[in-house]
Design goal:
Blueprint: E1 2-13, E2 21-27, E3 30-36, E4 42-46, E5 60-62, E6 65-67, E7 74-76, E8 93-94, E9 96-99, E10 102-112
Antiparallel strand pairs: 1-10, 2-3, 3-4, 4-8, 5-6, 6-7, 9-10
Bound molecules: FE2/S2 (inorganic) cluster.
Length: 115
């Protein structure tokens, strides 16, 4: 039997990203792109473009939009919505929590129970 649970994972310090910067992380099997927008807010999204698996963490951050480095699709990092072709499907977003200088994100965990 499989159950989906979530847990908060510490991934870095706020000082590791400048405003307007993106950094990619591997978090419990998920490729996550952490974005720090101008003004300082943090957002976490999949580091995987829905068009053709491009590495969004290597793309550009334009306000609250992330642009894929491969073919230029853009996504809203607050909602995950695809904003232009060639991507049409949204990317996943993850809750972010800042405690002092610590950045945590909430990721789903697959828990397998044996009957
Ligand atoms: S892989 Fe991202 S736009 Fe094509």
């Amino acid at each position: 039997m499989e159950n989906s649970q979530s847990s908060w994972i510490e991934i870095c310090k706020t000082t590791e990203l400048l405003e307007g910067q993106i950094k990619a992380f591997q978090v419990q099997g998920n490729r996550i792109a952490l974005c720090r927008v101008q003004g300082g807010g943090f957002y976490a999204v999949d580091d995987l473009c829905t068009h053709d698996d491009g590495p969004l963490g290597e793309g550009d951050l334009l306000g609250t939009e992330i642009e894929c480095p491969r073919h230029g699709a853009r996504f809203d990092i607050k909602t995950g919505k695809a904003l232009c072709l060639p991507a049409v499907l949204p990317i996943k977003t993850y809750p972010v929590q800042i405690t002092g200088e610590t950045v945590k994100i909430q990721v789903p965990q697959q828990v397998t129970k044996t009957p």
